[in-house]
Amino acid sequence: MINKAFAIxxxxxxxxxxxxxxxxxxxxxNESSFNYEDFIYNKTTNFHTSVKPYLISxxxxxxxxxxxxxxDKDDRTTNFLLNxxxxxxxxxxxxxxxxxxxxxxxxxxxxxxxNRYKQSFGFSINSNIxxxxxxxxxxxxxxNQYYDDLLSNIDSINIIPHWGKIxxxxxxxxxxxxxxxxxxxxxxKHFNFQIGNDKNFWGDGYRSLLLxxxxxxxxxxxxxxxxxxxxxxxxxxxxxxxxxxxxxxxxKKYSTSHYLSWNINKRLNINLFETVVWKAxxxxxxxxxDVNYLNPVIFFRPAEYQLGDPSPDNVLMGCGFKYKIGxxxxxxxxxxxxxxxxxxxxxxxxxxxxxxxxxxxxxxxNFLSISNFYFLTEFNYVxxxxxxxxxxxxxxxxxxxxxxxxxxxxxxxxxxxLRYNYKRFSIKAKFIYAVYGADSTxxxxxxxxxxxxxTYKPFEYGHETTQGLKTNFIFSEIQASYLINPKIHLRLVxxxxxxxxxxxxxxxxxxIVFIGLKTDLYNDEVDY
Length: 528
Fold this sequence. Notes:
Elements (H helix, E strand, L loop, with lengths): L1 H14 L14 H13 L8 E2 L9 H6 L8 H8 L2 E4 L4 E16 L4 E16 L3 E12 L3 H10 L1 E2 L3 E2 L2 E3 L2 E13 L5 E8 L2 E2 L15 E10 L2 E14 L2 E18 L4 E12 L20 H7 L7 E12 L3 E9 L4 H6 L8 E9 L8 E10 L14 E2 L2 E2 L8 E12 L2 E14 L30 E17 L4 E13 L4 E13 L9
Antiparallel strand pairs: 1-11, 2-3, 3-4, 3-26, 4-5, 5-9, 6-7, 8-9, 9-10, 10-12, 12-13, 13-14, 14-15, 15-16, 16-17, 17-18, 18-19, 19-22, 20-21, 22-23, 23-24, 24-25, 25-26
């Protein structure tokens, strides 16, 4: 059966129609993607919206959508600053774009009278070669300051959330480089091969319980296959992480992930997910990338059995759906399963290994029949110890950051977003309420920190979601922005947000006003 499947794939690979265009990917950024998501969610019938970032060649009106933001100016200098970038086009099917990266944000905490800043500068190179090959390189140098909410984690592990390792620290300023990029090749309209150092996101929500862009970038090789109403993705990832409780040294780990998206009809999509994580070093030898997990079409459970029972590796499975209601409303959801024992679940006794979670959400791109008015509401729930394993080198994370939800596990969360766009102007309101159970001691895990081995659990039964040091988190934000130049994704932003953490022993509040220029390359919000 497997041989037949490979034969079919090979035929499609060699003889498919070659009518396709640029093979680079969209940016994995909520601000820039909003400009075309209305089109792909509401005006296309066979687009796989949950596989992000998107391959531009699959968005039929990508160029015409972006042309809506052009401001006609006769003056060449003004036109260059507002509408274009550095572009070179060859007669031989080669083009290259060079974009500057600039971010300078100033923030003030009104309650605590503390000032902070973020500064980034660098460049982004994007090239397409003969309609089959694309190359992208982003190099960003950062100098940031952070409030105390994040400093304890940053100082202990030298990791900046979303970004990675610190290069240098000078007083309260942190310096770090961030380099991402990829090579994308499409031999025909069905296949795409991508190798790079970047992020991926699988899901239709604001968060993802399957694979998100919460962590920093990681090296990967990705195979995407798109035919009929099906899209199938295989992702081989090369990760690094701490071996808890040693937070200073990083070791190699690997993962292989499969994602199948099926558009059953014009309204309903379902998707299946599985991933396996294993450490490079076990008790016997240096495993490297295990060949048992290279096969792109098998399920992991049979491969695990070949490695012995019980397997030392961490396998997670999940599924999701999206259903279109009316013309522009979309109901979506996900389920993540780390461990599943039906007999224990039916007992309702809080067995520690009932490690599951779910997401349910609703979003509209023309809310209340108002064009360009966006609404999202979403609920996420993950039980204790989900994503964790025997060691942190087998958990579902990299560089001390979750590869799924930023809160880890043992939480309940509600997210609501309103947004309105008018040409290049936008205003956005966001409200997040979360309850999670933190750890009060170092040697006991109540299931929220996925980097603590689940062997740190205090008991076998009686576990409840949000157990431990119950923490309430409330985040609200209003932000206005103006898109200065859509070609280089440069925005002028201003806004205010409030953050409140409360437990039985402490209460922390911040009201932060911010303003500045920002290049939208990545999602880097710390709204958790």
